[in-house]
Design a protein that fits this description.
Blueprint lengths: L4 E5 L3 H9 L3 E6 L4 H7 L5 E5 L5 H15 L5 E4 L21 H23 L5 E4 L4 H10 L2
Parallel strand pairs: 1-2, 1-4, 2-3, 4-5
């Protein structure tokens, strides 16, 4: 897998580790890193972190540009791992937002937009790509339990 780049939106640390172990070049894009990621990625030339906000579509260009600058290519695979699960600032039950829903931007809009960009960028390079959208239902059931108060 030496020539393969994978782009992870959100810190999918286990997926990042597995891709690294397979020899893939990995782009990790998120608001910030975690101490576990920083420790793992330290001094690994095949792991590139790009600070980004998936609710800002212009940040997607920043991610693709960093990948092309670093490795002269776009990713071959995408693992979309970002997600919000009823945080106080975007909570289904309290409905605190007035101009849109951050959860929808992160959990619905960004996977759709990134998938479309992945297709466009890959076809533009004459190649195929795989997209894997990773979600967890553990936090959904926890959120539902909290709502039964």
């Amino acid at each position: 897998m030496e020539n393969v780049q994978l782009m992870f939106i959100g810190i999918g640390l286990c997926v990042t580790k597995q891709a690294h172990d397979l020899g893939a070049r990995v782009v990790v894009a998120d608001l910030r890193t975690t101490p576990d990621f920083d420790t793992f990625a330290a001094n690994k030339s095949n792991i590139l972190y790009v600070q980004s906000d998936v609710t800002r579509w212009a940040d997607f260009d920043k991610i693709f540009n960093a990948c092309e600058k670093e490795w002269d290519d776009v990713p071959d695979g995408y693992a979309i791992c970002a997600g919000l699960f009823d945080p106080p600032f975007s909570n289904f039950w309290q409905d605190p937002e007035e101009e849109g829903y951050k959860q929808v931007e992160v959990n619905v809009n960004h996977p759709i937009k990134l998938t479309r960009l992945a297709i466009r960028k890959s076809l533009g390079k004459g190649k195929r790509a795989s997209v894997c959208i990773i979600v967890s239902n553990a936090s959904i059931s926890t959120s539902a339990q909290k709502s039964r108060v």
